[in-house]
Amino acid sequence: MEFTVEKTVRQGAMCIAVSPDGTHAAVSSERSVGLYTLPELRREGSFRLSNVGTMVFLSDNRSLLILNTTGVLYLWDGTELERLGDWQVPDWYENPLHFIGDDTVLWAAVGGVWRFHVPSRTMTRLYETDRNVQLGPVENGVVRFAECKRSYIGLHPIDFVTMTTEGEVLSRVTTREKLPECFWPGCWTDDGSFVYGAQLIPQNLTGLREEGCIFRVDTRSGEVRVRKSVDLYSMNTGFSAQRGLVVQRSHALHRDILFRDPRSLEELGRIEYDAMLGKLDLNPLEEVVFLDGDSFLLGSWSRLFRMRVKK
């Protein structure tokens, strides 16, 4: 794979959201959110807000629902920022907000799945659990998610649940073997698989090594289809499935962006951290969002890039 930088903007890009019609992007830095037109990546405004964890555009392609890293929910209506509430539910910011239409958003965290209706400011808990939940695809009023124990130590089963957006559970599949927990975000591929990575830590905490594994689990049967060992694997790594690729995004020690085949999980290409930001820059490459065609936005804590990939 070949990667070309088409435009560079001096803007921290810790979180990126693209409007449903693909004409606008919101990009958060440490203390503000920049607003851009697409595909030009022309800055058209900004507003101040710190510690953005995740955000999503609503149906008007201008308004933003934003969740910060302490559980405070905000609404940007295009002109003003409104604080909607503080629910103090931990770790919401690690899972993306999912816009499901009718100005309604789903999200998940340790504890379950919630639905928020923006016009009425109504919060509804659809699913309750004491485990971690990672939302998957939302289609035709049905959402799929992974439910797993949040623990660095030991092996545990993972449940894959199918539920309506009204909260009715339709099915549940449990993995046939116990697996390392999926602490950081995994992703759902087009063939019904769940891909995630884990650092392998012995249950007795002896002989710790920087060793990890990437798993591709069939969510319909619970079988592990691919188990790929990796060296120097950081547990601070998330995955997303975009344009027929699995994108391995970095957060801390592992700072390159890797593109993998969604079935074999073999590496197809990578964007090297040193080449993009220089050896003295301590800000990791962190966010990848594909646009139309083969172009995508790549973010770090100090730069925003519009790039193109040639397979």
Concise summary:
The protein has 311 residues and is an all-beta fold. It has one helix at residues 273-277, and strands at 2-9, 15-18, 24-28, 32-37, 42-48, 52-57, 64-68, 72-76, 81-86, 98-101, 104-109, 112-117, 122-128, 132-139, 142-148, 158-164, 169-174, 187-188, 193-199, 211-218, 224-231, 237-242, 245-250, 257-260, 267-271, 285-290, 295-300, 304-310. It has a single domain, classed as Neuraminidase (6 Propeller).
List keywords for this structure.
single chain; 311 residues; mainly beta; Neuraminidase; 4-stranded antiparallel sheet; 1 helix; 28 strands; globular
Rg result: 19 Å
CATH architecture type: 6 Propeller
Order of helices and strands: EEEEEEEEEEEEEEEEEEEEEEEEEHEEE
**Count of β-strands:** 28
Strand order of the largest sheet: 1-28-27-26
Strand content: over 45%
What is the number of helices?
1
Coarse shape? globular
Descriptive report:
With 311 residues, the protein is mostly beta strands. It has one domain: TolB, C-terminal domain (Neuraminidase). Helix content is 2%, strand content 54%. The strands form 7 sheets. It has a 4-stranded antiparallel sheet with strand order 1-28-27-26, with no helix packed on it. A 4-stranded antiparallel sheet has the order 2-3-4-5, with no helix packed on it. A hairpin with a 6-residue loop joins strand 6 (52-57) and strand 7 (64-68).
Describe the SSE topology.
Elements: E1 2-9, E2 15-18, E3 24-28, E4 32-37, E5 42-48, E6 52-57, E7 64-68, E8 72-76, E9 81-86, E10 98-101, E11 104-109, E12 112-117, E13 122-128, E14 132-139, E15 142-148, E16 158-164, E17 169-174, E18 187-188, E19 193-199, E20 211-218, E21 224-231, E22 237-242, E23 245-250, E24 257-260, E25 267-271, H1 273-277, E26 285-290, E27 295-300, E28 304-310
